User: Fold this.
Amino acid sequence: MATIPMTPAELDEPKTSLWRDAWYRLVRNKLAIFGLFVIVVLAFAAAFGPYLTPYDFLSQDLNARNASPSLAHLFGTDDLGRDVFSRVIYGTRTAFVVAIVVTAIAVTIGVALGAMAGFFGGWFDRIIMWLTDVTMSVPNLLLVVVINASLKAPLAGWMEAQYLATLNPFFRETIWVDFILVFGSMALISWPPYARLVRAQVLSIRSRPYITAARALGLTTRIILLRYVVPNAVGPLIVSVSAGLGTAMVLESAFSFLGVGVNPPTPSWGNMISDGLRVWQHYPHLLAAPAAVLGLATVGFSFLGDGLNDALNPRGSK
Amino acid sequence: MNAMTMPAPERLLDVKGLSIEIDTRRGPATIVDGINLHVNKGETLGIVGESGCGKSLTMLSLMRLLPNKIKVKSGTANFAGRDLLTMSKSELRKVRGGQVGFVFQDPMTSLNPVMRIGDQICEPLIYHKNMKRSDARIRATELLRLVGIPSPAERLDAFPHELSGGMRQRVMIAIGLACDPELLIADEPTTALDVTIQAQIVDLVKELRVKLGMSVVWITHDLALIAGLVDRVAVLYAGTVVEDAPVEELFARPSHPYTRGLLASIPKLSDVAANRLSSIGGTPPEPGRRPQGCPFAPRCQLAEDICRQSVPPLEPLGGSGPHRVACFVAQRQLEAA
Assistant:
């Protein structure tokens, strides 16, 4: 039986804050904790996995091609005798790097444009919203395919020409063209939802009494934006970023699957799935391993996103 | 007593001919129509009127805090020698929160929910007084003690949602008082609170006003609440001042038919329980559909032809003195008496 608190100190509720409350609600949510666990494991694999794997992701063992999963090769080997487990782990790094960089760029663009559109309104708002509508109306895959197909070859050619002309080693590594184009084109299609979300938040916060109260205190627009508007808008943004990271991973895999993302031999879940799909009747593990990890990552981010949503908007969920 | 020989009290705030318009689909509509108001140094002015008569808008407009579609059309607002309505934005920022403190209507939503109350009280101190954070926190503790919050040092780290409504309104008042303002504008500060807390807040402001020697403007629709607090009352109706008098004078000799109606509609303990509460018939005019003459004429039982044709000016009752009323009938009745 619970004891009845008697002293004033016991009667006082423990000190709470918005974030601490949200954290308590989050850890009580089993699915969210599962999601968080999956993400932490994958993030660990992305950060340190390549140094821990038993094989290099490129080393080929042509005597053990298409081997089934065994103790030596946990997920088996592919058609060139490369260890699939090592490749999946290296693919985790690719997926995380692409997801984090793309989301960071998209959130930066989205928050900046959305917050200004919401706060200043007028023609600026109209232009930004028109821009998001236009971007969202173009089919995502098509836009990325067009950008990569039309820019990658000329850009790589230009880099090569620069290298031959200047011998500057900076221009030799054309892998960066790959990454810049993948990051850039994916960020280009990912920012509008963030801009819309932040704009809607700012629009509703702008007219709250505490903003008028802050203006009545003589605070500057900059302080009001940074200390009053943005902190109050950040809750839904966190939820959206968590879900967005998962989406960006799927997007990267989709583009690699189609051959417009990260180029082989750099392992990516998407191009591994694409390779595995051709032979899945004979060697199902080549498809199953990357697909299962991609699925797990997506589920992890989506559970965490849901959990954050419930934790940060407790009124909306129950 | 001859009014001419008395030294005129120094005016801290002097609003002249203030008109406010709202943009509607049918064009601009006047909400506040040429208001004249003043607050003397150390005086407490009550502004009374029903919902939508322009009380809050008038005060917001002085701080240039009007919402987007509402604009000041004409008028001046002289505060300590400068016009609030035309001064530069940087000057205005120094007045806001520095020389003029503002206490808002709803303590539940007027505090930033993600900021500790100590930080919110420190904000104007750091900004206006260039205080160091540690000094500002000491001052914030003093302020919380001043407004009667128990164990103030611990409360500094509380978030608004951890405090009750009355406590939050005390915090709002503490923020309003932070920089020793010359004028405290309280916009219906007790409307969202229950009756006992209302009385506490009124007593608190009454005490602080004397202690700190500041002027107060208290906006309310509750005449009875402020009877013991204010020195002078301005009665607003449809965006104009209809009567302006020292508080005892107003209660003893209400002259405008609207003021009389307001006073008559306060329920008394001696009322027979079966009686219906008395009220003023009709509704105030909508903005944009103001009558040609006196705005109260359509609801007024004493209205005559002249009331419907021209607007009565706000003039001292009987030619001189502090009691001013904007009513043809009241002025004539007094002359006849």
Remarks:
- The longest strand of chain B covers residues 11-24.
- Chain B has twelve helices and twelve strands.
